[in-house]
Write a structure and sequence with these properties.
Protein name (chain B): Exosome complex component RRP4
Strand order of the largest sheet of chain B: 8-9-10-12-11
Number of domains of chain C: 5
Number of helices of chain B: 5
Mean pLDDT of chain C: 82
CATH topology of one domain in chain B: OB fold (Dihydrolipoamide Acetyltransferase, E2P)
Low-confidence stretches of chain B: none
Helix content of chain C: 25-40%
GO cellular component, one term (chain B): cytoplasmic exosome (RNase complex)
Strand order of the largest sheet of chain C: 5-4-3-6-7
Shape of chain C: globular
Shape of chain B: flat
Pfam family, one (chain B): KH_6
Distance between the termini of chain C: 61 Å
Largest interface: A-B, 49 and 52 residues
Strand content of chain B: 25-35%
Number of helices of chain C: 27
Number of strands of chain B: 17
Oligomer: heterotrimer
Strand content of chain C: 15-25%
Organism (chain B): Thrips palmi (Melon thrips)
Keywords (chain B): Exosome, Nucleus, RNA-binding, rRNA processing
Largest sheet of chain B: 5 strands, mixed, barrel
């Protein structure tokens, strides 16, 4: 299957440097401390954050004394893929994704602010159409910002792949992923340009690495702008309603 | 036949009330540079960039507060951060040697030392060995208490005390949990509302609504818990209505204090208590409440 | 702007999946026309003309752009390739459908599009926000595509009208060409200008011959029988169901060369081929098609036919009558010889291509319908329509097949182009090359641009990167007249008593860098093709005969493989270098042999050659002990007249010691390199294997040997070699050679493969009896060697790898192409030899000694060693004639007898050779029996006949010029 036509269009009509449509919303759950819902193309992800709170149960021993204990859980809904598939919680793939998720987020969270506390991050993939990990990282970042957890900056992830051995494509969908090319997933802190996690699904020749990596990092920067815009909008809306926490002497919101 | 209300997700009611009067103050998001002035100090919600020590960056999303050289960024929503003198409502999680652990919706559980409570039999009794064994008789796991923050430990956890008759174990009533940022800091957190119920507005976001006892307030404190007393239907209804009003106000992100709750109660009288749970009604009540607050302010 | 495409698909297990895909609609897709004022086109995107010639067509006499429907592209690609049609818009819908349905047509379409003179523009209508069309519920996919095409056409009309004056004759309109009547009707109803291809082509004013090229896919087929002649083909769904249920089998249909009513189908999982016979059994399958086959019950199984049956020369019309003959044969076959038989019930995929051949003009002078006879015997005749029959009847033409309806005895096709006069050597060469799919066009300018610029000098930098071996006494030994010298050798004694032997191969990979046009062209050609009088080079001559060729006394780049070898030919160590060499002498086999034999010569070259020779003998002996096979095939060489380039004489190739010497070291080099690259790149090394033939392949050999009283043991290569060595008949020295020739025919093809695709046990080379082998020593004429050079260079760090080199799958598909091209080159070479043999015999009648190779029911296959050719000596006369002499065929004994005379395999006979030119396309060598004499059958010997004839065959025998020679070492 041709990933890139001669006219420079991909299978779904995007150009190689264009991202999929991203829609997101913060504060979708009232019970959780922070929550966010993110759609990247047809990939839909829900993230919730609880904490920081007192570690309960077995985690009591795990909480380090100088850092927060970050507990990530990644899971995919049974109905998230084309065929309905029973996924036992805690299976290999979920665990691996959880570990990767944790790695990316811990790079962004200011863990020294909450020693001996526990931070729970739960991510559920409702519909998987490629770029699941990236959408999860982005959604988790938004949920963390919603919860007011101190972070150095956003943790943003993006994927890129190679078409015809020459052109790098950003934000690969499931169809493009399964067409056999290798995919590079990168989680970065966009403002400082640091890379938190980098993963490749297959090997390709080292000559191609620079351009694919560059494309992915560009994609991260673009996504960062979109997420930042969404956060600002949300903060403005909620802040405005409560008057920015400032009240006059009569106790009325200003 | 009960009415079951089913609603499509796309037809969700938007609880936010639009103002449009004043422009927003400047917002900062994590990773954004606030200033590169060397002489500022970083407060909550900010940090100094590792590479360039002059640059101050925000670490949460919110508005900036400036007190002389100290710059803080206050997030819209976060866990309760205790300060000395705050009134909190909490639940006992553990009974340990010489102290109780109280869960107060903050980063770490708070601590209630046995030396900080009023034991039956008046004050200034020596803390004998029997007292420790009898701790469980006074406060068990799962009990709700109201207390005041005495001090803050170095790791951020709070030390509480109930050395006043108005604090102590809570008996019959309803607990409501709201985001801590919606609770206004005031002198008094114990209110007897005109509507006929009483309310404790904990700074940590936990609100306790209980029927106004006919006796004076001193009966609230201490460790007596009168669970046999039957609260009559009217009181229950009033308390239920209050609860729903508070939830309505919280959903629309209005600040909670005695006046706003009082007005909300009055506005809600046009609806039945059950109706107050529907989103449209909640928005309506909140809108009216704000309107009244606004009009009183203008007066 | 975003929509979603939702469709349902069924998985293999039978679950229904709902697939949802995003489909982005863009607003930055331009129309490609130079006269458009609204689109922001860049210069290179303005494909369609501003000024369109207006009176190209008589019916559509206004300037217009054409929009094509899918069926037009698929079926009328030949018409499209003509230069007459310009300013054509190809919609993305059409392009994708064509790609999906037929890749050859797709490739040809892309070639047309890439030619800027044709002005074909691809419009991406599926992603354009105004022309995207969503499937309505209940609409079929085809209808939806048709609607999309119509929407796009009308969009173009409105889009362009904004930029143009309204006047009719200046206004560029849109014309939709479609062969689908429904679509045409709907388009006209919507106000579009639409036409069928036939009408349009007919109305073109200066292309009368274009009508001939129209394919008859949906056209009315005049004539044909009233009743269907063939059974119905099953629909694709029925075939799928049948395959899944196990009732039907899928395989490739291979037509029999001898019997046009017989063929076999190669089904995976079946050891033997399944036989199909008769018109109904073959059911319109053409050689190479993938067919669906139904096995007949065992009671209906038949034996493969022993007769040689050809389709009649004249046009029999649309009737089938050969069945009768076949029926008689069926009854006689004994049960044990019967083979699994089946019948073709459907065609899964056609493998039609363009065929060369000649026209068989019809009896009726005015008729337009003629029969075309392909050069390839396995392809049936094709019925075409042409108005140029008079002009074409003496020419070789190319024809493509369109369809084979049930009512027609022959498939229907259309004329593509003419090649030249029949029998003309150049035309015949061209036919040969086309039929064997050999790319033989001139190297394009783009390819030549990657050659190094002359004068070429070796710089200091080059010397620094390579090992300097200019001081060694290196020499090359090659056939006479060889200009592309691939390899050179040297040998010298070391102080410790061992020898240092080096094999130096031309460093082609230095000049051909991966990925550029030169590399791609070489990869496509895969090998140099050696015809008798021509050589089709794989790489341009500058490289093959000059810069890469290791000519004498010139400094050249080489890739050296240097061993330290004991006097007993045991390898102590092996080294590989990129080097610079200066060959001291470029010798022929004869010259080298002379130098070795001449005891007075003791210079370095002679000593080097003697050392190599003695080591080679030991190596050969060792190889034979290990079980290497020594086989034979009749190798001959033509001496060609320098002026007319006609063959004068046929000479057998002689094998000297020096042939064997060079061969041994080339084998050793190949083995050493194979081991090294496999060690470094176990996943993607390009190796060569020769699989062991299945025991059944050897049956004819064993049978023939047994009949002569020899036992042939075929359990392993070694045992076969030993059996062959023992099968000697002192009174008939050629007998052993013939046995070896038969053995060669039992062998499988040696093929290239990528090491990651097979298990290590399968790497073995049966013929050479070594566990691992590759091709390293001839990069000038084989592409596989260039790949091996690149891998080896990466091993020693002299060059870097590139992505495709390490990709196992890319290597695998490259091997596929290399194997195909190699096979085709071999066939082409043989066909060229055949052609020249026929040319040679055009004016000659000669008696020659021959041996019977196979005994058939109605003929003997006779091998004539002098010319290395095989001919058929018919024992029964052709159809329609009465036999004067009736031979008795004994199948058990494999013999034919008449009276006291008996013909068996390996029996010597004398035959008269002449050329039967009655069939212009297939000139046949006619063999008539001379000895043993049989009255009323055999002919008198030529000697007797010569006296009676005028001798007028004296020609000027100029000095025979040397043809570019074929490598004597066979491709192992």
């Amino acid at each position: 299957m041709e990933l890139l036509s001669d006219q420079g269009l991909r299978l779904d009509g995007r150009r190689p440097e264009e991202l999929r449509n991203i829609r997101c919303k913060l504060g979708v759950f009232s019970q959780a401390d922070g929550s966010a819902y993110l759609e990247q193309g047809n990939t839909k992800v829900l993230a919730t954050v609880y904490g920081p709170h007192q570690p309960r149960g077995q985690s009591r021993n795990k909480a380090p004394h100088d850092q927060v204990f970050v507990n990530c859980q990644y899971s995919m809904a049974v109905f998230s893929t084309g065929e309905r598939k029973r996924r036992p919680r805690g299976d290999r793939k979920s665990q691996e994704m959880s570990i990767h998720l944790r790695q990316a987020l811990v790079a962004a969270i200011r863990t020294e602010l909450y020693p001996r506390s526990q931070l729970d991050i739960f991510v559920e993939v409702l519909q998987a159409d490629g770029g699941n990990y990236c959408a999860c990282v982005n959604a988790a970042t938004l949920a963390l910002v919603d919860a007011g957890v101190g972070m150095r900056e956003y943790a943003v992830a993006c994927s890129a792949s190679l078409a015809n051995g020459e052109v790098a494509l950003v934000d690969v969908s499931h169809l493009e992923e399964s067409s056999g090319g290798s995919n590079l997933t990168v989680a970065t802190l966009p403002v400082s340009g640091q890379v938190a996690l980098m993963e490749m699904s297959q090997r390709f020749h080292s000559d191609h690495l620079p351009k694919v990596l560059e494309r992915a990092i560009e994609g991260c920067k673009d996504i960062h702008q979109i997420l930042d815009g969404a956060v600002r909008k949300h903060v403005e809306e909620t802040g405005r309603a409560s008057g920015w926490g400032q009240v006059d002497r009569a106790g009325i919101a200003l | 036949m009960q009415d079951i209300k089913i609603r499509l997700a796309s037809e969700r009611v938007n609880h936010s009330l639009t103002f449009g009067e004043k422009g927003a103050p400047q917002l900062f998001t994590p990773g954004q540079t606030i200033t590169d002035n060397q002489r500022v100090m970083s407060g909550h919600g900010t940090y100094l960039d590792e590479d360039n020590k002059d640059v101050l960056k925000a670490s949460v999303a919110g508005t900036v507060e400036r007190v002389n050289q100290l710059i803080c960024v206050r997030p819209i929503k976060c866990r309760y951060m205790g300060e000395i003198g705050d009134v909190v409502v909490g639940r006992i999680t553990e009974v340990q040697q010489k102290r109780w652990k109280v869960e107060t919706n903050s980063r770490l559980d708070s601590v209630l030392l046995i030396s900080s409570v009023n034991l039956p039999g008046g004050e200034l009794r020596r803390r004998s060995a029997e007292d420790e064994q009898m701790m469980r008789k006074y406060l068990q796991e799962g009990d709700l208490v109201s207390a005041e923050v005495q001090s803050v430990f170095s790791d951020g956890s709070l030390s509480l005390h109930t050395r006043s008759l108005k604090y102590g174990k809570l008996s019959q009533g309803v607990l409501v949990k709201v985001p801590p940022s919606l609770i206004l800091r005031r002198k008094n957190h114990f209110h007897n509302l005109l509507c006929g119920a009483s309310v404790i507005l904990g700074n940590n976001g936990l609100i306790w609504i209980y029927p106004t006892s006919p006796e004076d307030e001193s009966g609230v404190g201490g460790f007596t818990q009168n669970l046999e007393e039957v609260i009559d239907t009217e009181d229950r209804e009033r308390i239920a209505r209050l609860r729903n009003c508070i939830l309505a106000l919280a959903a629309s992100k209005l600040m909670l204090f005695d006046s706003s709750i009082q007005y909300a109660f009055e506005e809600s009288l046009s609806y039945s208590i059950k109706e107050l749970l529907t989103p449209e009604t909640m928005v309506d009540v909140a809108l009216h409440t704000r309107h009244r607050l606004q009009s009183y302010k203008d007066d | 702007m975003l929509t979603t495409k939702t469709f349902l698909r069924k998985t293999k297990r039978g679950n229904i999946l709902k697939i949802v895909r995003e489909h982005y609609l863009r607003d930055d897709i331009w129309c490609g026309s130079s006269l458009c004022k609204n689109c922001s086109l860049k210069e290179k995107d303005k494909v369609l003309d501003k000024e369109v010639i207006s009176n190209v067509s008589s019916v559509f006499s206004f300037p217009h752009y054409l929009v094509l429907d899918t069926n037009v592209v698929l079926h009328q690609i030949d018409v499209l390739e003509e230069d007459v049609l310009e300013n054509v818009i190809i919609l993305q819908t059409v392009l994708e459908e064509v790609k999906h349905r037929s890749s050859p047509v797709y490739r040809r379409l892309k070639d047309i599009i890439e030619n800027p003179n044709r002005k074909f523009y691809i419009f991406v209508n599926e992603h354009h926000k105004d022309t995207y069309v969503e499937r309505k519920p209940g609409e079929t996919a085809n209808d939806r595509n048709d609607r999309a095409i119509r929407v796009a056409t009308s969009w173009y009309a409105t889009h362009l009208s904004g930029s143009q004056p309204k006047a009719k004759n200046k206004h560029v309109s849109m014309v939709l060409l479609t062969d689908d009547a429904d679509n045409c009707q709907k388009a006209k109803a919507e106000g579009l200008i639409a036409s069928t291809v036939y009408d349009y082509v007919k109305s073109l004013q200066d292309a009368p011959t274009l009508l001939d090229k129209l394919s008859k896919k949906d056209g009315v087929f005049e004539g044909g029988s009233k009743e269907p002649l063939f059974p119905l083909h099953l629909s694709p769904k029925e075939i799928q169901d049948g395959l899944k249920a196990g009732k039907l089998h899928q395989g490739t249909f291979l037509a029999s060369r001898e019997n046009f009513l017989e063929g076999s189908v190669n089904v995976e999982g079946f050891e033997k081929f399944i036989l199909v016979q008769g018109h109904a059994g073959l059911n319109r399958a053409v050689d190479g098609d993938t067919v669906a086959l139904e096995l007949l019950p065992e009671s209906d199984w038949v034996a493969p036919s022993d007769i040689v049956l050809e389709d009649s020369e004249d046009d029999p019309g649309d009737i089938l009558d050969e069945e009768v003959k076949m029926e008689k044969e069926k009854a006689k076959a004994k049960k044990v010889e019967r083979e699994p038989t089946g019948r073709v019930v459907g065609i899964i995929r056609r493998k039609w291509r363009q065929y060369c051949g000649i026209l068989l003009p019809s009896q009726d002078k005015n008729s337009v319908r003629h029969l075309f006879v392909p050069a390839e015997r396995k392809i049936p005749k094709i019925r075409i329509e042409t108005r140029q029959a008079e002009k074409l009847k003496s020419q070789r033409i190319i024809v493509a097949i369109d369809a084979w309806p049930r009512t027609s005895r022959y498939p229907l096709g259309h004329f593509v182009r003419a090649l030249g006069n029949v029998g003309d050597k150049d035309t015949e060469n061209e036919v040969l090359l086309l039929e064997h799919d050999v790319p033989h066009s001139k190297f394009s300018d783009q390819v030549l641009s990657f050659l190094p610029k002359l004068p070429w000098i070796i710089t200091e930098e080059d010397y620094a990167k390579r090992v300097d071996l200019r001081g060694l006494t290196i020499c090359s030994v090659d056939p006479v007249g060889c200009t592309d010298i691939d390899d050179a050798l040297h040998c010298r004694e070391l102080e410790n008593g061992n020898y240092e032997v080096g094999v130096h191969i031309a460093d082609v990979s230095h000049f051909i860098r991966p990925g550029n046009a030169l590399d791609k062209e070489a990869a496509l050609r895969a090998t140099t093709v050696y015809l008798v009088d021509k050589r089709i080079d794989m790489v341009p001559e500058l490289l093959s005969s000059n810069l890469c060729s290791l000519r004498g006394n010139v400094e050249r780049f080489a890739f050296s493989c240097i061993w330290e070898i004991t006097k007993n030919a045991e390898i102590v160590n092996t080294k590989f270098h990129k080097s610079v060499i200066c060959s001291k002498a470029a010798l022929t086999y004869g010259e080298a042999q002379a130098k070795i034999d001449d005891k007075n010569l003791n210079d370095d070259v002679a000593k080097s050659l003697r050392g190599l020779n003695s080591l080679a003998k030991i190596l050969k002996k060792r190889r034979i002990e290990n079980g290497a096979l020594v086989l034979a095939s009749p190798e001959i060489r033509f001496q060609v007249d320098s002026e007319t380039h006609d063959p004068i004489e046929v000479v057998a190739k002689k094998m000297l010691e020096t042939n064997s010497m060079v061969e041994e070291f080339m084998l050793l080099a190949n083995i050493s390199v194979a081991e090294k690259i496999f060690q470094e790149f176990p996943d993607c090394a390009m190796l060569r294997r020769h699989p062991q033939p299945p025991p059944s392949n050897f049956d004819p050999l064993i049978k023939a040997g047994n009949l002569q009283g020899f036992e042939i043991n075929v359990e392993s290569g070694k045992q076969l070699a030993e059996s062959l060595d023992l099968a000697l008949k002192p009174e008939n020295p050629y007998f052993n050679t013939m046995l070896r020739i038969m053995a060669t025919r039992c062998m499988m093809q040696a093929v290239y493969f990528a090491s990651g695709m097979l298990q290590k046990e399968e790497f073995a080379h049966y013929g050479l009896a070594c566990p691992i082998y590759t091709h390293f020593t001839s990069p000038i004429r084989r592409y596989a060697d260039i790949i091996v050079h690149r891998l080896l260079a990466a091993c020693i760090g002299a060059d870097s790898t590139y992505a495709d080199l390490l990709d196992k799958r890319k290597s695998h598909s490259l091997c596929h192409n290399l194997n195909y091209r190699n096979r085709m080159a071999q066939y082409a070479g043989r066909a060229s030899v055949n052609l020249h043999t026929h040319l040679f015999f055009r004016n000659r009648v000669q008696d020659e000694q021959g041996y019977v190779l196979y005994v058939r029911k109605n003929a003997l296959q006779v091998l004539i060693p002098k010319y290395g050719l095989e001919g058929t000596l018919y024992l029964a006369p052709p159809k329609g004639q009465v036999a004067k002499v009736n031979f008795t065929y004994n199948e058990e004994e494999q013999s034919q007898s008449y009276g006291s005379i008996k013909f068996r395999v390996f029996d010597p006979v004398t035959v008269q050779l002449s050329l039967d030119r009655t069939n212009v396309q297939h000139e046949k060598l006619m063999l008539l029996l001379v000895k043993p004499e049989i009255p009323d059958f055999s002919v008198p010997s030529q000697a007797a006949a010569d006296e009676a004839m005028d001798v007028d065959q004296v020609k000027d025998t100029a000095a025979p010029s040397q043809p570019p020679s074929k490598r004597q070492r066979k491709s192992k």
